Design the sequence.
């Protein structure tokens, strides 16, 4: 399968301003060097606790935020991607690489160059009540991306809005209504319709099911799965709900404090976790079966502040198996099995 | 095992502009001593209202229209909470039943320190014990310094005030003292005593460095720490019943694991009963002894936790169990949506979404009947009304 989205060493720091002249006195390292490849047509799960940088990463990769450093390649033809990789590995700052990056690296793009790409990358936010404008009608909310992109107008626009609303399970009765007239599940459907109306290839799902109930969640997940098959979409599914991620994703990455600690096939991550943090996370996940009594790994302390993360491995202050080397050097993400990457000194 | 609290036919209505919301319709429940009863259901099905009705704290425009909440107090008397007057309820709330709310940052007051908020519980419900400790301390210092000195006479005066406070809390002298700022300083011994108790309590709950945390404001603490402070307030008076309303919903899984272990441990230590309200079936499976399932203001099924996961009888419970994403199994959806409680469907409120609807379901409301031992179901499929 072709790589649709690739980020290389992506970083996003937020400055902390302070003092009389509002100088930058520190940095919040929200995303600190994340390299990922997302294949076309897959659903990639991204899990982690709140504040670990999941959402920031999702927003940065589709360039809603400007990255501090790193490269984003989206929908680059395969031969050019290979060339870029070759040049990157050769460690030379050649002119060719510079030229290719200017042409294909989203991190370097300005707004004008990004606009046509925006229709191919969309996002669905966590809370539909907050992400839908309460003063706009559903037809305007869903039609707005088409208007902004100049893809359709008039009758054509209305037809496309209707088409997509039908796909997400709403009818023409709903066109002239305001968001507050809908239930939580229906609002999320409107948000999904708005994301899909421009026929995107890649959709960031930022906790789309965490604001809704169990029975509504099941319906939304079914809808997302069927839409993916029907329209050939690629998802990155950001969530802290491990059970949901397990059901919907093909591959999963676990994030901790701005870095990926483990990545692999869903079954590998859930049944053979190698990183101590992933193990603790999996053991803390309540299983809906009273007969399963799990041995819990209780983590000590709290997630450290991303302003000055601990030296070495970022998990070392809470890790039971921390060694001397963990406090000094940061482990690299290495492939231990085919397709299973871990960043831990224990495994290496 | 005896019952701690029993709800009988509790009816709650909300009088809104759109109409009368029939939030709870004849809810029957009981919690046994020392057990954890899980209350599970979707948003808006009346879980929180059931919890609040135990306190008689339904917020306006809601009203409890009928039923009884029988509660067995620590001294063994059975009282109907709904018919008590405000003063008597005040003695029970916080002291014998207490509540943990969903959002810790919303249930803590942002302008008071953690210590001030937790010690409030002690100052209201445990005042006598605190005063007794204060008097004992004063007597001890008196013995050390001996009679005659100026300090001794001041201490004796303070002791007199505290004794008055214990025997006659409404006296005129105390009212005057509390009005005058300089003289109000006599309370500092009481507050210091409460502070000591709070530090002990926080340490019991596994909060690191309680001497520092006690002077912090809620926004300086993380979500998990805040929830621990709320739990500290709830447990300050060793309640016999703890109502936990989605205590871990806003927390991360790893923090959730810590809080759940904490509640389990405290329940064991204080021998309290817990009413655990949640929509997460995983948490239910882990925490509870028995489970009550609610749908649109009705309790539809009550059973042992193993029984309800293995052998759910009510069609809604079955559908709910099948709708959770579980590894290896396909999840199903429930058709239709949750009904509007202003105009709930007649008869069984689940019948428009049910796969086994019969004629009787659309007309009469099924009662909660015991099908097997300790397994109650409200469904016409099982109560012999089916044709």
Sequence:
């Amino acid at each position: 399968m072709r790589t649709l989205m690739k980020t290389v060493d992506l970083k996003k720091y937020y400055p902390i301003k302070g003092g009389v002249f509002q100088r930058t006195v520190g940095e919040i390292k929200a995303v600190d060097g994340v390299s990922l490849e997302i294949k076309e047509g897959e659903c990639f799960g991204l899990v982690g606790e709140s504040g670990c940088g999941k959402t920031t990463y999702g927003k940065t990769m589709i360039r809603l935020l400007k990255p501090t450093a790193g490269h984003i390649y989206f929908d680059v033809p395969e031969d050019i991607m290979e060339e870029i990789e070759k040049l990157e590995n050769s460690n030379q700052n050649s002119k060719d690489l510079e030229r290719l990056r200017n042409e294909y690296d989203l991190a370097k793009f300005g707004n004008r160059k990004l606009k046509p790409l925006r229709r191919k990358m969309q996002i669905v936010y966590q809370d539909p009540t907050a992400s839908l404008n309460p003063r706009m009608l559903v037809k305007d909310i869903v039609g707005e991306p088409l208007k902004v992109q100049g893809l359709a107008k008039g009758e054509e626009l209305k037809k496309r809005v209707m088409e997509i609303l039908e796909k997400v399970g709403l009818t023409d009765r709903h066109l002239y209504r305001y968001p507050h007239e809908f239930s939580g599940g229906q609002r999320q459907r409107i948000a999904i319709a708005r994301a899909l109306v421009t026929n995107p290839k890649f959709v960031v799902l930022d906790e789309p099911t965490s604001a809704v109930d169990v029975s509504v969640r099941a319906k939304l997940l079914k809808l997302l799965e069927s839409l993916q098959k029907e329209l050939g979409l690629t998802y990155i599914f950001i969530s802290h709900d491990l059970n949901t991620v397990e059901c919907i994703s093909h591959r999963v990455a676990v994030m901790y404090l701005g870095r990926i600690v483990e990545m692999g096939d869903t079954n590998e991550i859930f049944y053979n976790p190698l990183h101590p943090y992933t193990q603790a996370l999996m053991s803390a996940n309540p299983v809906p079966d009273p007969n399963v009594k799990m041995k819990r790994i209780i983590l000590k302390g709290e997630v450290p502040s991303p302003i000055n993360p601990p030296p070495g491995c970022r998990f070392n202050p809470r890790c039971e198996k921390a060694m001397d080397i963990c406090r000094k050097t940061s482990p690299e993400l290495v492939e231990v099995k085919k397709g299973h990457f871990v960043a831990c000194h224990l495994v290496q | 095992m005896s019952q701690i609290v029993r709800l009988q036919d509790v009816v709650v209505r909300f009088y809104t502009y759109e109409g009368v919301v029939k939030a709870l319709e004849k809810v029957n429940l009981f919690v046994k001593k020392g057990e954890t009863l899980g209350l599970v259901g979707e948003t808006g099905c009346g879980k929180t209202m059931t919890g609040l009705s135990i306190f008689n704290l339904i917020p306006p425009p809601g009203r409890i229209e009928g039923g009884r909440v029988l509660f067995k107090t620590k001294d063994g008397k059975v009282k109907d909470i709904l018919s008590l007057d405000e003063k008597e309820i005040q003695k029970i709330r916080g002291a014998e039943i207490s509540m943990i709310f969903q959002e810790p940052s919303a249930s803590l007051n942002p302008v008071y320190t953690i210590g001030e908020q937790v010690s409030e519980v002690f100052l209201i419900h445990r005042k006598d014990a605190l005063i007794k400790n204060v008097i004992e301390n004063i007597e001890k210092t008196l013995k050390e310094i001996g009679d005659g000195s100026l300090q001794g006479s001041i201490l004796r005066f303070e002791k007199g005030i505290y004794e008055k406070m214990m025997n006659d809390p409404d006296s005129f002298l105390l009212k005057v003292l509390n009005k005058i700022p300089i003289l109000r300083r006599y309370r500092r011994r009481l507050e210091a005593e409460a502070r000591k108790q709070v530090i002990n309590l926080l340490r019991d709950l596994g909060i690191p460095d309680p001497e520092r945390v006690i002077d912090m404001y809620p926004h300086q603490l993380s979500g998990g720490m805040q929830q621990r402070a709320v739990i500290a307030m709830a447990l300050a008076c060793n309640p016999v019943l703890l109502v936990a309303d989605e205590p871990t919903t806003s927390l991360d899984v790893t923090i959730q694991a810590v809080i759940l272990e904490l509640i389990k441990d405290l329940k064991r230590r204080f021998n309290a009963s817990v009413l655990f309200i949640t929509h997460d079936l995983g948490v239910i499976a882990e925490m509870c002894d028995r489970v009550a399932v609610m749908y649109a203001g009705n309790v539809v099924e009550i059973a042992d936790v193993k029984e309800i996961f293995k052998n759910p009888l009510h069609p809604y419970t079955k559908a709910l169990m099948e709708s959770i994403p579980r590894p290896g199994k396909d999840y199903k959806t429930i058709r239709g949506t949750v009904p509007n409680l202003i105009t709930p469907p007649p008869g069984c409120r689940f019948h428009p979404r049910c796969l086994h609807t019969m004629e009787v379901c659309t007309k009469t409301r099924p009662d909660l009947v015991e099908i097997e031992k300790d397994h109650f179901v409200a469904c016409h499929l099982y109560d012999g009304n089916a044709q």
Observations:
- The two ends of chain B are 38 Å apart (CA to CA).
